[in-house]
Amino acid sequence: MAVRDLSVHLASYEKKMEKLRRLVGGMLDSVINTVIVCGPSGIGKTYTINNILQARSESDTAPIRFKTITGKITARSFFDHLVENSTFDCVTFFDDADFIFRDPVCIGLLREASEKYGQRIINYRTAKNKGDDCVTFDGKIIVSTNLRIGSSPHLNAVKDRFHILNVEVTFLEKLAKIQEIATLNTHGYLGQKISVDANREILTFLFEHQHRIGEDKLSLRMFCKAQELYVAMPDSWRDYVEDMLLTPRLKGP
User: Distance from the CA of 107 to the CA of which of 210, 216, 241, 250 falls in 20 to 30 A?
Assistant: First the structure.
C-alpha cells in the first residue's frame, strides 16, 4: 500500500481536536459550567473527551470525579444523574445525547444546571411533578451531540448559557487520521490490539472500496469496526466488512 501524503489534512484534524482538548481542559479549572460539543459521529469526540477526563481524575492535584452516560435516557434519569454528580469536583459527560435537546424537561434542567450567576438549583418538573424534587448543583456538564445546536431556533432562549463548540471534520481529515492510526499505532485506535501490517491491510481494503463508503459514512469508528472484524475472523473479515460496513454493490438490470 502506498501511503498517501495527507499531512496537511492530518494537521488540520489535530488542530480541531486540540481546540476541543483545550476547551474541556480549561472548563475544569474555570467558571465554565457547561460545554456542548457538536459534530458528526465517529470523528473522535468521545475518545478525546474521555481521555481528558480520565487523565484529570488520576491527577495528584485537584482530581475530579467523572461519569460518562451514553445514549438516550429519560428526563428523570437525566435529573438523577445530575443529582448523583452534583458536587463541585464532579463532571458528568453525556455522550451521544441528542435526546437532551428534544425534551423540554431536559432542556430546562440543563438551563438550570448551567446558570452563570448565583446558586444553581435544579428542579424536576413535569405535568405530574410540579417541582418538589430539587437540589443544589455545583458540578460541571459536558454534552456530546450529533445535532447542530447553534442553528436550533427552539434553543435560542437557553443556548447563551452554554459554551458550544462545533467540530466539523472533512472526509480527507478523517482519512488522514485513519491512515495515521493504521501506519503508526501498533495497537490501533481505542486500544484495539492489532499489528501494523493488519492495519495497513484494512486501510488498503477501505481505499480500494472508498466509492462504497461515502464522505458522510467514513469515520474512525468504521475503521475500529473493521479492526474488530479482522481480529474476530482473520480469514473472512473482508466479506463481513463488505456486508456490514460498505454500501451494497449496484446490481445490473
Answer: 216
Number of H helices, E strands in the chain: 8, 7
Over residues 116-138, the pLDDT tens digits come to: 777 899 988 765 655 567 889 99
Side-chain half-sphere CA neighbours of 174 within 13 A: 27
Cell reading at 126: 413535569
Give the CA distances from residue 37 to residues 112, 166, 173, 199, 200, in Å, rounded to whole numbers and listed in that order: 19, 6, 18, 29, 31
Distance CA 149, CA 59 (A): 32
For the chain, the first-to-last Cα distance in angstroms comes to: 35
Spell out the domain ranges in the chain: 7-166, 171-244
Full-model pTM:
0.84
CATH 3.40.50.300 applies to domain 7-166? yes
